[in-house]
Amino acid sequence: MKYLISFINLKRVVLTLFISAIVSIQGCSSTPATRKHEIEVSHELDPPKVIVEANVGIYFEPQISSYIHKQAFSDDIAAIHVGHESASLFSDAVPLAFKKAQVIDKMPPYDIEKTELDGIIEPRLDYVNWRTGFQSADDYFHVEYTFILYTSDGVPLSIWRIRGEGKYLQDQMTDAAQKFVTGFSTAPETERFRKYLASKMVGNLKFNTDHIDVKAEIIDENTLGLELIASGILPVKVSVSNNTGHQVMGRGYDARLIYSNNRRIPPAFPLAVISATEYLAALGASDPAVAAAFFTPLAVIPIMSGQSSDQQDVRKNQVKYFEEARLKEVTLANGDTIQGKLYFTLPEDINELENADLSIWFIDPSVANGKRKVVNISGINYKKLTPEEMKVKAKEMQKRLEEMESADIDSKTEDEFE
Length: 418
Prior knowledge:
Elements: H1 4-23, E1 33-37, E2 52-59, H2 62-65, E3 69-73, E4 76-80, H3 82-93, E5 98-104, E6 119-128, E7 143-150, E8 156-164, H4 169-183, H5 191-199, E9 212-218, E10 233-242, E11 248-259, E12 263-265, H6 270-276, H7 278-285, H8 288-293, H9 309-325, E13 330-332, E14 337-345, E15 352-353, E16 357-364, E17 369-378, E18 382-383, H10 387-417
Parallel strand pairs: 1-4, 2-5, 2-6, 9-17
Antiparallel strand pairs: 3-4, 6-7, 7-8, 9-10, 10-14, 11-12, 11-13, 11-16, 15-18, 16-17
């Protein structure tokens, strides 16, 4: 019953969404309205004290640079184009820290064998939560970036995470960019990459990836009451066993889902997984038939434009779950096995998917070199839902949450009598 409190809060939020659809002055609509929210991010950054003497490429995965963060408010969806703004910001920020830098649109070893660059930097959004309506001083509302640093062959050497600070999202984004510019030459996380840039040398691998057993399968789970697959999320359970005789570093950050003529996508960060399910919840909120079934005295509570404390608590619990569940960077001794999950958000143009591979890097930490292994993902039978099917899923989700809360109430009652 570890997460049952989040189920109760989630139900309250969804009920609020449903009721707000009823009391809305504009009336109910068949689908949620998506409203774009513009953010203006300052690119005015202080130069670093030390410029790294190297020519680096800046690579943005298409799914990251086009990422739109969505959050449900009442029966609307707020859409913040934070991916595009992030790509624009770091296209300007990264060159300040180096002798030369340029944006590249191809990445070894997927698209090309090797670049003529000294190294490659991939900025990734790893966390973003937007604050609207009534403001509150809450660390939960912030932005965090992960920078994956590669050799010219595309071997990932280092990971550097930076959290942006400030009152508003745009301030936090600028702060993260400034920390990258001024901190790159001294950050402990970038030391291995900086040594590589200076020498252009990596050691020979001591292990053979044929002796690393990797299994990947789709799991049909509705964790915390969220409809993942129905929302276009593929949850992949990954098991890795090291039988090489050497230490091996496995890296979930560098994994890619490869499909349809070598198209690929990186894992989604936890809040991106959650925000992908927001549409389904708001869809239920805008359905009069669903709302009528849950009309309660709660309707007398004023509906505010911002997030309720219940909704914030729910999302915090959800983020915590997905953060703990996802496959992270880990060093495996010989004979060790690890399991974790990767969550991939499928692009809008994918209507069906029956076959895909998982590409995952394995690094020899002693020589700063590695090799990727590609395995087939079993159990894929994805079909994008029609609008009518999505409404059915929204109703099923509500029924499941009702049952969860009822079970929790019964459990609490039993505890009180004991």
